[in-house]
Specification:
There is one protein chain. This protein is mostly helical. Among the domains are: 207 residues, Orthogonal Bundle (Neutral endopeptidase, domain 2), CATH 1.10.1380; 209 residues, 3-Layer(aba) Sandwich (Collagenase (Catalytic Domain)), CATH 3.40.390.10. It has a 4-stranded mixed β-sheet with strand order 2-3-5-4. Strands 6-8-7 form a 3-stranded mixed β-sheet, with helices on one face. β7 and β8 form a beta hairpin. α1 runs parallel beside α3, α10 crosses α16 and α20 packs antiparallel against α21. The longest helix is centred in the middle third of the chain and has 23 residues. The chain is globular and about 75 Å long. The two termini are 19 Å apart. The N terminus is likely disordered.
Length: 688
């Protein structure tokens, strides 16, 4: 999963937050969330455009806020969670119970981010040690040492289509493909300022415009730092980044886990990827004691290492200087932050103004001290009753998925037994982790915003190093409780559903159970299905990368997946820009299978109750409308373009319209041949 405006279900939630200010007792529960009838466009036939039928009036009435690239159900809820966190971090809302020491760290981090005067006074002091280390590079060994010292665990490893870091490489500590009972280091490609290699390599007019904008951005950052001859430096920096991009694996290649299964011993690095002084690099990175490292994009490692040995040292120093400044810009004096926004938000996503500083401070604090902020959030806003209800939904949808596996007439008994074993051993975390992370030893200072971020990054990196070679904790969370999202972790055969996503419009403990199944139930089904998508299906019940399919079953599965690729390849969100059906295949499989399992789960849960209409819609209709309204989202063209090029998720309208593959949807809305979304029964993709 990932992401005067009518806020769906927002008014009551905002009142809840406001009522809690000053440590007041929690107010009465908000009215139960229901289908947003006013947001629908009932002039449209559901079979012609189900997304617009469910969301058309909302789309017409909604303006994207100037500080946003897109706006929708996930964004609205994210804004509400941010308001809650602001109160907890600035002292306006009293935490529940007695907070531990980590709460003080979180509040100090937030306060430092908000202290613009201190940031202005510090100038470039916070980044000066890194700049001095770069200036001291004299040979290839010292280059390797600086590069190794910069390695951090900052890759976006949750989205299997996005492993991004602007450092030359990134580290991900995760279960071993072959031995999932222990953690191993994964080395990921990096080194780019723009989101993806295609931003450097595409040649259409929009791509060239963005490339020129990035060159201008490099010049501006160097000029702000007082660099001599910034134009010439910027040309060399861009050219080096372009060569790094040329070495990168594509997004589609990066999601192929078999391409990522490259265990290298430390002694093999020099022969497999010559150019970089790997011995020095790995020592500086704290990895010299590892028996092996998994190199996710082996060809990229070779190409980048070759550049480390061939490109002039002065060019590397210019590049690293810019990268250090650019990485720190949000916490440098205002002119740097404004320039960062101009390129990374306006040029790349279309946002018109920066988000309020408190919103950025909340996001930064949550990203750096996730469990500390999460403990505050859960204690105040996630009651045990909500967790118990969500757990019951999960159990019901898992049971529905199990029944669907049993009903597959094409699957052999051998494969079916393996699939069910995987389902039986699935760990599902609801709300928050079973054990909170300790921040002992981490120093946070109220007057040092950039230093705080640097120290938390180093703290996280050292924590990742400490995990290597140790037994895997299957219950370890990859998301913080205040994250509006959910995740499946194939290497752990585990799922996380953070407390924040268990709010309207996805989940309302006092609301219509049918809508809960259509919204959060489909998300639950989606994440369960990731264990059986084109990637997750390659991992067995232990998390090992191992084929558990008979050849005939695998052939059937891959044929169904290919039909789904073709279905999504045909979608065209912008003129000439199509959805990449292969890149988005995992998410599309999970959408189709997830909403199917959630529908079965809702039907099972409602079996003992008489059907009833709400807001003029019967139960089946409400289920599907709730699903489509969960994916409502309006996005700027720049944001759509970025999503298509870099994200493994299809845009919201096509996620909602995946229902065209489900027989019950046709019955619920009397969808007929000749309508735009109609598929003949034989053409409907049924992966699970």
């Amino acid at each position: 999963m990932t992401n005067p405006i009518r806020l769906v279900g927002a008014g009551a939630l905002a009142a809840t937050v406001a009522g809690a200010l000053g440590g007041a007792a929690a107010p009465a529960p908000a009215p139960a969330y229901r289908v947003d009838v006013a947001g629908m466009d009932r002039r449209i036939l559901p079979g012609d455009d189900f997304y617009e039928y469910a969301n058309g009036a909302w789309m017409q009435a909604t303006e994207i806020p100037p500080d946003r690239a897109s706006f929708g159900a996930f964004t609205i809820l994210d804004e509400q969670i941010a308001e809650r966190l602001r109160g907890l971090l600035d002292g306006g809302v009293k935490p529940a119970g007695d907070p531990d020491a980590s709460a003080g760290l979180a509040k100090s981090f937030y306060a430092a981010f908000m202290d613009e005067e201190a940031i202005e006074k510090r100038g470039l002091a916070g980044v000066r040690p890194e700049l001095d280390a770069i200036a001291g590079i004299r040979d290839r060994s010292s280059l390797a040492r600086v590069l190794g010292e910069q390695l951090r665990a900052d890759v976006d490893a949750l989205n299997r289509a996005q492993f991004h870091t602007d450092r030359l490489f990134g580290l991900w500590a995760a279960p071993d493909f072959a031995e999932p009972g222990r953690y191993v280091a994964y080395l990921m490609q990096g080194g780019l300022g723009m989101p993806d290699r295609d931003y450097y390599e595409n040649t259409d007019a929009k791509a060239v415009e963005i490339q020129n904008g990035y060159r201008t951005h490099i010049v501006a950052v160097l000029r702000l730092a007082g660099a001599a001859d910034p134009d010439a430096k910027a040309r060399r920096i861009y050219d080096l980044e372009k060569r790094i991009a040329d070495a990168h694996a594509s997004r589609t290649e990066s999601v192929d886990v078999h391409r990522a299964n490259n265990p290298w011993t430390l002694a093999e690095f020099a022969s497999r990827a010559p150019g970089l002084d790997w011995k020095t690099y790995l020592e500086a990175a704290g990895l010299s004691a590892q028996p092996k490292i998994m190199v996710w994009q082996a060809d990229a490692a070779k190409g980048i290492a070759a550049l480390a040995g061939s490109e002039p040292l002065d060019t590397w120093k210019e590049y690293l200087t810019f990268r250090a400044l650019d990485r720190a810009s949000a916490l440098l004096p205002r002119a740097f932050a404004e320039e960062q926004f101009r390129f990374y938000e306006t040029t790349l996503t279309g946002a018109q103004k920066p988000r309020d500083r408190w919103k950025r401070a909340v996001a930064a604090t949550s990203a750096s001290l996730g469990d500390a902020v999460g403990r505050l959030y859960v204690g105040r806003y996630f009651p045990p009753e909500a967790k118990a209800q969500a757990q019951a939904m999960v159990a019901n949808i898992v049971a529905a998925f199990r029944r669907r596996i049993d009903a597959l007439d094409w699957m052999s008994p051998v494969t079916r037994a393996k699939a069910k074993a995987k389902l039986e051993t699935l760990y599902v975390g609801i709300g928050y982790p079973e054990r909170w992370r300790s921040y002992d030893g981490l120093r946070i200072e109220r007057g040092d915003a950039l230093g705080n971020r640097q120290r938390t990054e180093l703290f996280d990196y050292r924590a990742s190093l400490a995990k290597l070679g140790r037994p895997v904790d299957k219950t370890e969370w990859a998301m913080s409780p205040q994250t509006v999202n959910a995740v499946n972790l194939p290497l752990q055969n585990a799922m996380n559903f953070p407390a924040a996503v268990l709010n309207p419009p996805f989940f309302d403990a006092a609301g219509d159970p049918v809508q809960n199944y259509g919204a959060i139930g489909a998300v639950i089904g989606h994440e369960i299905s990731h264990s059986f998508d084109d990637q997750g299906s390659q991992f067995d019940e232990t998390g090992a990368l191992r084929n558990w399919w008979t050849p005939k079953d695998l052939e059937h599965f891959e044929a169904a997946a290919a039909r789904l690729v073709a279905q999504y390849d045909a979608y065209e969100p912008l003129p000439g820009l199509h959805v990449n059906g292969k890149l988005t295949l995992s998410e599309n499989i999970a959408d189709v299978a997830g909403v199917s399992a959630a529908f079965d789960g809702y039907r099972s849960a409602a079996a003992a109750e008489a059907p009833r209409a709400v807001e003029g819609f019967d139960a089946d209709q409400r289920f599907f409308i709730a699903y489509a309204q969960a994916w409502r989202r309006k996005a700027r063209p720049e944001a759509v373009r970025r999503q298509i090029l870099t994200d493994g998720h299809s845009p919201g309208p096509f996620r909602a319209d995946c229902v065209r593959n489900l027989d019950p949807w046709y019955a619920a809305f009397s969808v007929q041949p000749g309508q735009a979304l109609y598929l003949e029964p034989s053409a409907r993709v049924r992966v699970w």
